[in-house]
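Retro notes (design track)

What went well: tokenization of the new backbones is finally stable.
What didn't: we kept losing track of which sequence belonged to which structure.
Fix going forward: every design gets posted as structure first, then sequence, in one message. First example under the new rule, 402 residues:
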């Protein structure tokens, strides 16, 4: 009993270290991400270019995981993948301080490289988190990690807002200063990562029971990937929301990072609530979260008052919290640990490809008529809910039949 308690405690401490790495890294790149949309608009990019960059960045970062996932599984070099990924993911952000209107294309390249870094480290990080699931619960493990992650994502945009508010120079000067200062937190992340590697060299040893299926012939995993694709396909990325607010002059541009901070705070709470609910009720928690968040598009885009915009952003945060915690927790319950990073690579690639195609369509529809964006997003999310409901019904019937 004491040994089990000791392993559980170590698993929890390891998860907290991972969460602290996520907190600092999200402080850095989500702080930057909160101003990507308005920053790119300021230096000369159009709505289509912003939506394209956002979608392409996700696609590259996610598709790359098809390669980095299997590499992590084959080599078991989880920590090396983490260090390489975080270094690229975070150290490109302070370089944005040197970009202005004359070379705005460089900003696009740096933003894309930031996503490449995330693509290198994400399968390894998800696999490391999943190794603690037998001791803490899959939903709880990913929810705790996500909550700390989003706490950083909540503080980062507030930090950026403060920098922009106190800036005495031009608007562009404020953005460049914010990117530069975020570099400090990038360095801190790498320091904590190094300490974690020294303290826990073999975290895969936390998981000892082999009960789950591999990927080949795993029908449940394949069916689930279709549902994941639908969720990502209809979801609208924040830079598009930020562009809409500034384009329609619905809000002073300096408040946009604060709204993003609100979304990240909601994301963190949502992850904890739905992650805890997932360990008790399973897939129904995901269905509930997506059902709530699908009202985001009509409420956000049809509102001209601040209350409607805030409610829309809160619903967006609920959707993100569910995506970041439960979507990954489900994978850990479906696939054996030896193929876990590969499964996460496939999961991220499917999610990212659907996100990219969806973002492109949303960007084009936005240029035509905002109403089309609302109809498209809501319809696809309703489809995702129906698909997950059918999966759950089939699973329950199968269990009942047995």
């Amino acid at each position: 009993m004491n040994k089990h308690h000791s392993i559980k405690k170590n698993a929890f401490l390891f998860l907290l270290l991972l969460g602290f790495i996520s907190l600092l890294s999200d402080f850095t790149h989500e702080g930057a991400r909160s101003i990507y949309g308005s920053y790119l608009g300021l230096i000369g990019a159009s709505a289509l270019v912003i939506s394209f960059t956002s979608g392409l960045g996700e696609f590259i970062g996610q598709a790359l995981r098809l390669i980095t996932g299997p590499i992590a599984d084959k080599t078991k070099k989880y920590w090396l993948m983490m260090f390489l990924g975080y270094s690229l993911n975070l150290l490109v952000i302070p370089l944005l301080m040197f970009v202005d209107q004359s070379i705005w294309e460089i900003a696009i390249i740096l933003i894309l490289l930031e996503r490449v870094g995330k693509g290198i480290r994400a399968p390894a990080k998800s696999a490391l988190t999943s190794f603690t699931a037998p001791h803490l619960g899959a939903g709880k493990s990913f929810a705790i990690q996500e909550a700390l992650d989003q706490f950083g994502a909540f503080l980062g945009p507030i930090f950026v807002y403060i920098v922009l508010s106190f800036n005495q120079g031009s608007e562009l000067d404020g953005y460049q200063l914010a990117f530069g200062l975020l570099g400090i937190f990038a360095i801190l992340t790498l320091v904590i990562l190094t300490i974690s590697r020294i303290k826990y060299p073999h975290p895969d040893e936390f998981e000892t029971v082999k009960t789950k299926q591999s990927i080949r012939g795993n029908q449940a995993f394949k069916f689930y990937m279709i549902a994941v694709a639908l969720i990502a396909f209809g979801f609208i990325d924040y830079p598009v929301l930020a562009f809409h607010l500034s384009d329609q002059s619905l809000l002073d541009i300096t408040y946009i990072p604060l709204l993003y901070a609100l979304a990240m705070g909601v994301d963190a709470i949502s992850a904890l609530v739905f992650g805890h609910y997932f360990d008790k009720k399973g897939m129904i928690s995901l269905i509930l979260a997506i059902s709530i968040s699908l009202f985001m598009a009509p409420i956000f885009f049809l509102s001209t008052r601040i209350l409607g915009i805030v409610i829309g952003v809160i619903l967006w945060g609920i959707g993100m919290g569910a995506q970041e915690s439960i979507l990954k927790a489900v994978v850990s319950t479906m696939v054996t640990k030896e193929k876990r990073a590969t499964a996460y690579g496939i999961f991220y690639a499917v999610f990212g490809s659907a996100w990219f195609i969806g973002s492109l369509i949303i960007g084009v529809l936005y240029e035509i008529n905002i109403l089309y964006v609302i109809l498209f997003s809501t319809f696809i999310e309703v489809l995702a809910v129906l698909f997950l409901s059918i999966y759950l019904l089939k699973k329950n019937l199968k269990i009942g039949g047995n």
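Added context from the reviewer: The mean pLDDT is 88.
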